[in-house]
Structures
1.
Amino acid sequence: MAHNIKWFKTIDSTNSEAFRQFEASDDFSVFAAEFQTNGRGQKGTNWESETGHNLTFSILLKSNSIKAEDQFLIAQIVTVGIKRYLKHLGIEAKIKWPNDIYIGDKKICGILIEHFLSGDTLSGSIVGIGLNLNQKQFRSDAPNPVSVSILTGKEYDIKEELESLAGFIYEIYYTYRNFSSGSTEDRLEREYHESLYRLDEFHKYEITRDGRVIEARIVGTDTNACLILEEEDGSRGSYHFKEVKYII
Ligand code: BTN
């Protein structure tokens, strides 16, 4: 299926463009750029991407029926879609909670999601995705980047790959966009869980509140999108995004 993709040679940020065009756009409109002058990452960082080498795009979603309390579903749809796309390229990826995509200990894709709420319903979301496709060298202080091309030794056409990736995400979105809480549909939840980076393995984590470093294993996520960590003595804690740091 051909998707509604608007390409820009240069733009400040595809997330910002999706925001500006929100009212006039249909559900699952895609805004993509060869280069962003102000590509935004999580926690106020910049997103580095060489011109025309990678996928930098945003998907505008207007589902109208997902409850605000179920907003983590959007991250699950997108991360599982990206994981399936990479699998079709022959790459086994993991989801680093909440929504980074990792290959081993290296980051191949970052996601910045902005939600809009209307009462207790999600009225829209802008999902910004930066996927390293052809870039071979990274200059920024991003700790551990990798690209598809570094892994496969091939070069990719960004427009063809974006069509393909959008298709993987759309297929899942189409199934879940009318999701309501309590539904028995849990296949996506399971695939997200099974794909978690470091699932069930003991590693070090820093608790940001007090700087304490714990040795723990990820046992899952809860309905509030918190990460559940279990320490060696069996005690468990659940943490919001800013409350815990992976030590890699
Ligand atoms: C992260 O820090 O891991 C999130 C990176 C998200 C980058 C993408 S690139 C396309 C979209 N537009 C932006 O300004 N940011 C996102």
2.
Amino acid sequence: MRRPVMAGNWKMYKTPAETTAFFEKFRPLVENSEHCETVICPPFTDLAAAVDAVRGSRIQVGAQNIAWAKEGAFTGEISGAMIRAAGAAYAIVGHSERRQYFGETDETVFKRTLAALEAGLTPIVCVGERLDEREKGITKTVLVSQFTKGIADLTPEQFARIVIAYEPVWAIGTGKTATPEMAAEAHRMIRGQVWAKYGSEAVAAIRILYGGSVKPDNVKTLMAQTEIDGVLVGGASLDPVGFASIVNF
Ligand code: PGA
């Protein structure tokens, strides 16, 4: 049985005060949500407020990015040890916005994933095709390439500690969700890669989340797909009531 991960990615939204206000409303609404892991990934500057606000609850906190280096002259970067010391347990790696706007590549995704693992964090490694790639019919090629270059060099022990998020880029922030069947098909493609590289136990254990315009009203049909082990939610995770209803799908 794979325990679902219901994760919120706040992107570049909310101040520390707004973070505290979010959790005041959110926390009581998910108090009994033992069916899943609930994770909120706020901006770095909100990590302290978030960790403070979730103390004593089952909610966990994650970062949205992580440096591949341990420390050094890397202006603007935040290391795994720093994220860990802030009290976070997860780190999103390779989100499509990082790939699109900040030059993230499969190679840097791999290095950041290793850094997260070394720091004792659970990386949520994002993959997914762009619209032009889907229209060209090369979704599978893209997913295979992202897996091969960004993930497949992990050892089996390292692989056992990651979470994968499939996020079709054309569905992010657009209101266009992949149909549950489309998402499930992409998840099966990824599982096929996992099977070929890491074998059947890894296939049974790996959690693959879906992300891209997940909302309270479509989460149920997505989660009804046996291939989908949770969601990575952007816009709809900013509202405490809405995100609580997603967590409690
Ligand atoms: P969205 O974003 O839910 O706003 O589409 C998802 C994501 O980018 O993780």
